[in-house]
Amino acid sequence: MYDLIIIGGGPAGLTAGIYAQRAKLNTVLLEKQMVGGQIAVSDVIENYPGFPSISGAGLMEKFEEHAKGLGLKIQFTEVINITAEGKEKVVKTSDGDLRAKAIIVATGARPKRLGAPGEKELTGKGVSYCATCDGPFFRNRTVMVVGGGDTAVKEASYLSKIASKVYLVHRRDKFRAEKMHQEKVEATPNIEILRSHTLKEIKGEGGVVTKAVVQDLKHCEMKEIALEGVFIFVGINPTTDFVDVDKDEGGFIKANQKMETSIPGIFAAGDCRTTPLLQVATAVGDGAIAAYMAESYIESHK
Amino acid sequence: MYDLIIIGGGPAGLTAGIYAQRAKLNTVLLEKQMVGGQIAVSDVIENYPGFPSISGAGLMEKFEEHAKGLGLKIQFTEVINITAEGKEKVVKTSDGDLRAKAIIVATGARPKRLGAPGEKELTGKGVSYCATCDGPFFRNRTVMVVGGGDTAVKEASYLSKIASKVYLVHRRDKFRAEKMHQEKVEATPNIEILRSHTLKEIKGEGGVVTKAVVQDLKHCEMKEIALEGVFIFVGINPTTDFVDVDKDEGGFIKANQKMETSIPGIFAAGDCRTTPLLQVATAVGDGAIAAYMAESYIESHK
């Protein structure tokens, strides 16, 4: 039996792994696909303190080397579910059952895709799902924001201070966002709101975004807009189906400041939990706390 | 008037500065003494993800360069107090008043010193105030833990799994720590408890700790113990006197997961707040959230 099983090999999981190895917990990290998580697909990250500019993949290689250098065992397998049997937790995987005294869920979240042609190919080349992460790359450029909720409208405001021009595209004629945020974007001179419009296609040249094709749903007209960035905020899905702890309406695991979930011995860290900000910097903080609290939990239940 | 004043130039403050610059907030960071905070005096830090081993000062230089590269203004001055005048906050400093829409307090905390001869000189050379930070440097070595509270007793347990032998020195004959933690250290074979003992002196050779001199208070006898590390847990003082927000009994600022304090527009980040873990990794997460929330606060109060 392990002391600790960490599920997910992104920044939160790898940081938990670093702390667990240092605390001499017998630990395994389970990863479904590829170490690094969402950030590994980012071309450039410039807000993880200590690295002014590095590729997402490059930063995650450093995290992985750091964790492996401390002896962290990483196993590639898919987790099907977790059950608690008294003090033991049983993690059912595609390669059989694993048991541990404590679990850290660090499975992250994925932004929803629109499914527009060009979106996938140009992700990280002008298509982004995070203004805090990528906004500063578009200083004095033209960008488009897609979506009608709070995030879309707030991020349009945020981007309007960096970009020279922001198109805000929403498929309905009313926003779901708070009135206050709406009024702000309406009053911002460099934000142009395209209500009842959908993004149909993103076009690139030389591997970077150059144009967006939008359709006016009321008049069925198509038009092309020249721009450098497209920010898509149509929702985010945490990867939490496999674990039966308390979650919010969006599926994010409810965890307190100690990263404790509703089941003792199961901790959550990073984007998969109810966190105010989805960043490498915050995932790292969560991962460190989760491992420290898991160690405390294991010690006090010996 | 500034948008944001950040008080304190350690990991939390510098990270908040990085995020604030990227969000184009007109920001100044105020530092009393020296950029870097407590961690800058650490010889080696091996648990900030991405840097398997770096000096505390070296890591903080990287943070400072990162923040300054984004244009962060750093001013050296001492903060005397903060008052709220409607939506404005006034920061009184030794060089006059500064005004801002929002404040981030990131002033950190200092472990209490015993004041024993050798303690100050050998800090970072075998004398430590953080087991999570420095424990792994003492693998299979002999260490001493000084203190009688929860932290001392829990950290003695933690260190007993790494070090070959742990002396736990407490000046009273009873521990203040929770009974459960006490029983654990009493049952751990490689922990030797020295009740009614005080640490009188720490001796070094070649610049590193080699011996501790303890006194048995019941028999007034002195003895020397050969060892490599001395961990001192006799309390920690946050630097929070200058700000009048809700605090816990230890003086740590009460802040929620959004880093909000009891006064709207004043945020707290890092070791100065009620955080479960005092680490660079957690300070970085706090700093990012505090800046993001400060930006939201400023936007919504325009």
**Largest sheet of chain A at a glance?**
7 strands, mixed
Total of domains of chain A: 2
Quickly count the helices of chain A.
6
Net shape of chain A: elongated
Helix-and-strand structural type of chain A: alpha/beta
CATH architecture of the largest domain in chain A: 3-Layer(bba) Sandwich
- CATH class (first level) name of the largest domain in chain A: Alpha Beta
E-strand count of chain A: 17
Question: How would you concisely characterize the structure shown here?
Answer:
Chain A is built from six helices and 17 strands.
Jot down its keywords.
seven-stranded mixed beta sheet, 2 domains, FAD/NAD(P)-binding domain, 6 helices, alpha/beta, 302 residues
Describe the structure.
The structure is a homodimer of 302-residue chains. Chain A has helices at residues 11-22, 56-69, 131-134, 150-160, 179-187, 280-300; strands at residues 2-7, 27-31, 73-76, 79-85, 88-93, 96-105, 109-111, 127-128, 142-146, 165-170, 191-195, 197-205, 208-216, 221-226, 229-232, 236-238, 266-268. Chain A is built from six helices and 17 strands. The first copy, chain A, is 24% helix and 31% strand. In chain A, strand 12 (197-205) and strand 13 form a beta hairpin. Chain A folds into two domains: 2-110 and 236-300, FAD/NAD(P)-binding domain (3-Layer(bba) Sandwich), CATH 3.50.50; 113-232, FAD/NAD(P)-binding domain (3-Layer(bba) Sandwich). Chain A starts with a strand and ends with a helix. At the A-B interface, helix 1, helix 2, helix 4 and helix 6 of A face helix 1, helix 2, helix 4 and helix 6 of B.
